[in-house]
Please model this.
Amino acid sequence: MSIGVLVFPGSNCDRDVQWATEGCLGMSTRRIWHEETDLSGLDAVVLPGGFSYGDYLRCGAIARFAPALESLLGFAAAGGRVLGSCNGFQVLTELGLLPGALTRNRALHFICEDAPLQVVSSRTPWLKQYGTDTALSLPIAHGEGRYQCSDETLKQLQDADAIALRYRHNPNGSVGDIAGITNNVGNVLGLMPHPERACDPAIGGTDGRVLLQGLLS
Model:
């Protein structure tokens, strides 16, 4: 079983993800440069946090055209598991694998803190081990994490049971307190919090471990 971590110019959490998946959870992990197109042999792909291509234009707007992401579309369509955290979530919305958009925080400030969360749906492999209504805490660190979508899209997310996580105390103004969503099939998850930063009790708790284990469960 093997995990791929995409790396863009400006990514800053790719090593954090590898440390968590490989060092803490024992998953074989390799970093994949944005110009690579070969995703063969991978069971799951992670899009890490950071500032892909400097976040010029919009967060994730340039990364959306990276050659690796053209391959990611086929990987996801074939059922491969895809996880995007923070900037990775932004990239997934720009790519169209997830609906909606991430915009400037309500107060227009960068937020870096632990966020209390509620598991809304345990329908997908990512969250089934938590169980619905489980409370957890994961770090957030973003300036553009305010999830927005149309009323129609919000209803579609609710009807599909695709809202994965909600903030218990909304830090950024996201519609419906949304912190993370999945696609309809459930193999693609995007969230603004950083599960890779919550895998070691010495530095950030362990609430992120179970979610990352969903990469291979």
